[in-house]
Amino acid sequence: MSALTARDSASAPPRLGVLISGRGSNLKALIDAIDDGRLDATIAVVLSNKADAPGLDHARLAGIATVVLSHQAFASREEYDRAVVQELKGRRVGLVCLAGFMRLLSPLFVDAFPDRILNIHPSLLPNYPGLHPQQQALDDHATVSGATVHVVNKDLDAGPVVLQREVPVIPGDTADTLAARILAVEHRLYPDAVRLVLERRR
Question: What CATH number was assigned to the domain covering residues 1-114?
Fold first, then answer.
């Protein structure tokens, strides 16, 4: 590598890999933050385990490379994760962002990107990890919920917190109405958290 190429590589924006399974609204929030200059990064690839994930259209409209790898085509979680890791490393991804990726990551995946995988979860972790956190909050008669961006480790929704923001629980809330208000906060929180992580790494 020439000195000029090395300088260009060092000054290039960090490369993100975004993993989705569904609508990709947080992916769209990251794309918008990059486009309007709030986030100095580039999305190297958007990968989905579902070919019909609507979020893939956000990537295609933005000219971002997409990859579909169906987990059903692999014999084990580890084999699937090995293929995903290969795709991400082949595209020189430095930070992995889970954005509604409905798959539990194996230790193999986590070890491949130590402290370089982020996830966004619709609760104030450590409260209400796992599935249906909005309903968990309602069942617990909580007065406040929110969203958390955390580093992914080998324990479910238990990695170090990067950023959190609160969302009040309003009398009469359903899981759906609470989820909608939390999602609006997620769209601002995720780009801020990614920017914070990237700044810490420089």
Answer: 3.40.50.170
